[in-house]
Amino acid sequence: MRIAVCIKQVPDTEARLRLSGDGTWIDEEDLSFVINESDTYALEEALQIAERTDGEVVVFSLGPERVREALRKALALGAVRAVHLQDPAFLGGDGLTVGRALAGAIAAEGFDLVLTGSQSDDVGFGSIGSIIAGELGWPHAWLVMGVVLDEANHKVKVAREMEGGMNEISNLDLPAVLEVQAGLNKPRYASLKGIMQAKKKEISEPGPGDLGLAPEGLGESGAKIEVISVAFPETGKGAQMIEGDAETAAKTLVEKLQKEARIL
Amino acid sequence: MSKKIWIVLQQRDGKIHKMAWEAVRAGQILAAEVGGTAEAVLLGSGLEEAASEVGQCSLAAVHVADDANLAEYTPGRFVRTLEAAINAAQPAYVLFPHTYQTVDFLGRLAQSLDAALVPEVVAFETVDGSVEWQRPILGGKMFAKVRAKGSGPVLVSLQSGAYSADEVEKGSAPIESLNLDYADMAADREILGVEEAAGGEVDLSQAPVIVSVGRGLGDEEKMPIMQDLADALGAELGASRPVIDSGWLPRDRQIGSSGQTVTPKLYVAAGISGAIQHLVGMKGSQVIVAINKDASAPIFNVADYGIVGDLHEVVPAVTAALKEASGD
To answer: Do B100 and A236 make contact, defined as CB atoms within 8 angstroms?
Structure first.
């Protein structure tokens, strides 16, 4: 089974964030980046399916030069090849243009399954997989917590998370797009051998023309929304902040819970 | 021409989702701000009672797509139905509750309509005739203001709690049937059923005190300091999603949109930054204490008491202070 995995490189969620100069994003200088958390589960699931079905995993990502590092890591984990959409025409868009570009790159090859994370930890649209599915005309499911392949009947059975601890169980016809929820499996670590092999694996960088995509539907020119500004929320709006070293703060807290909140 | 604002409601067995009422309120406010009319849309089967319930709100119309083919939600049929209806009526804005069902199909609907997509909105305001939408980014650590550009409908989903269901204005709205050819619409998913996710043993909803732990714990080996605090408070242990995904605690301890919703007397959140998915599961707690090393963590916005510090020092100190206070 041939599987495409779409990953995004995002700021490390533990990173200290600062505003960029124009106030429409964060300052990326000195920021550390990682593969988006739910995408790591999508990649692991794809690698496991490929191992069971004697298949292969090709990894796709859209973003600037720095994204190469994330792709290299995916190659070290076991993807056979990577596609990096970093032509300026692809950048600066919204969910629709990113989905359109990734779908174009996926359609340029043949795949049985597309896996991606359910939501990015930075912008968090949660829609890229379903946009890709719409472009490809394939079925999809969001927030996938279980995947059982039925290769003989060309179907996949998925458990999709619902609110309140319930899962919806359904069958999708292949090819399909699955948007994987974190926690689906246990992502592996790269082996030294994998890291060495990754250095020799191909990362191709097709432009819009190579994929038969019109540039006006991509990137900034194709986007239907624009960011006006980003900002930090006011902190401690309701909270009474308790100062002092750990011991002092702890004593004050217990006192307040007893005498002020009266709940102890 | 006055702008149409559509609110697509979610229902199950004729019962309207609570967040859908919040979206109705948002739609009424938006209609007043842009000088438009708010209209509701209901999809499903056997919707007579639900439609008449929605009809008691101050809305210009309730459009109903009532057909056996829509009895079960499938993205294929819901997207085709909404696509046809939106193309015919040309609403300027289409609002949705930001539920798991909405997110499942909303990207696909935006793609098929080539429409602007603004998910997870927590607030909006009208500036010089254009609507600025505010939504959380980076796990709620920051907010972005965005606006649509170009023409065509703007699809917006509203995060839980952003607008109040209790403030929906009452009125009377005509109920109109959307006459579409549903038989032509293929389901792209064969629904086999609904089952409980693994491990639903512990019911945290009845616990009077909950001590909840997040990624900030850093290491599973440190869990005993959380258990000690829970014991000192007579509390149940809860956790945010990353702790569960890492396997540090079983899934039935998860609090948040994909876990349990709790409203204890006292909720202590340690090492939890406060992503919206966690906040929706605990913000109704009576008293919230947050312990986090990052002073800008959004958890401090919902907390009553906050301590900025390393939980590995603060949590054992609170346990010790509790024991001292109770005379142990």
So the answer is: no
Residues 6+ apart with CB under 8 A from A57: A3, A4, A5, A43, A46, A47, A50, A78, A79, A80
CB atoms within 10 A of CB B49: 10
Q: Among B155, B184, B213, identify where a domain stops.
A: B184
- Single-letter amino acid, residue B86: I
Instruction: Please name the helix (run of DSSP H) or strand (run of DSSP E) that holds residue A227, with its range, or none.
Output: strand A225-231
CB-based contact, A216 to chain B, within 8 Å: no
- B157 & B251 share domain: no
Distance CA B98, CA A168 (A): 18
Contact A163 B257 (CB under 8 A): yes
Task: Tell me what ipTM this predicted complex has.
Answer: 0.93
Q: Which residues in chain A are closer than 8 Å to B306, comparing Cβ atoms?
A: 236, 239-242
Q: What does the buried/exposed string (b/e) look like for A2-22 if buried means 16 or more CB atoms within 10 Å of the residue's CB?
A: bbbbbbbbbbebebebeeeee
Distance CA A41, CA A59 (A): 13
Would you call B190 an interface residue with chain A, using a CB distance cutoff of 8 Å? Answer: yes
> Which listed CATH number (3.40.50.620, 3.40.50.300, 3.40.50.1460, 2.30.29.30) goes with A2-222?
3.40.50.620
Do B9 and B66 belong together in one domain?
A: yes
Rounded CA gap, B153 and B6, in Å?
10
Question: Is B101 found in the same domain as B73?
Answer: yes
Indicate if the alpha-carbon torsion angle B185, B189, B190, B192 is positive or negative: negative
DSSP state of A244: S
Coil vs helix vs strand at B4: strand
Residues in Cβ contact with B272 at an 8 Å cutoff, skipping those fewer than 6 apart: B212, B213, B214, B215, B216, B240, B278, B290, B292, B297, B299
Between CA B238 and CA B214 the distance in angstroms is 9
- Within 10 angstroms of residue A214's Cβ, the number of other Cβ atoms is 13
The Cα–Cα gap between A71 and A221 comes to 26
B136 lies within 8 A of chain A by CB: yes
Q: Tell me, yes or no, whether B197 lies in a domain.
A: no
8 A C-beta contact, residue A76 and residue A198: yes
Residue-wise pLDDT tens for chain B (328 aa)?
Answer: 579 999 999 999 999 999 999 999 999 999 999 999 999 999 999 999 999 999 999 999 999 999 999 999 999 999 999 999 999 999 999 999 999 999 999 999 999 999 999 999 999 999 988 999 999 999 888 999 999 998 899 999 999 889 999 999 999 999 999 989 888 888 899 999 998 876 557 889 889 999 999 999 999 999 999 999 999 999 999 999 999 988 899 988 999 987 888 999 999 999 999 988 899 899 989 999 999 999 888 999 899 999 999 999 999 999 999 999 987 6
Q: Which residues of A touch B298 (CB under 8 A)?
A: 233, 235
Residue A185 to residue A182: CA distance in whole angstroms: 8
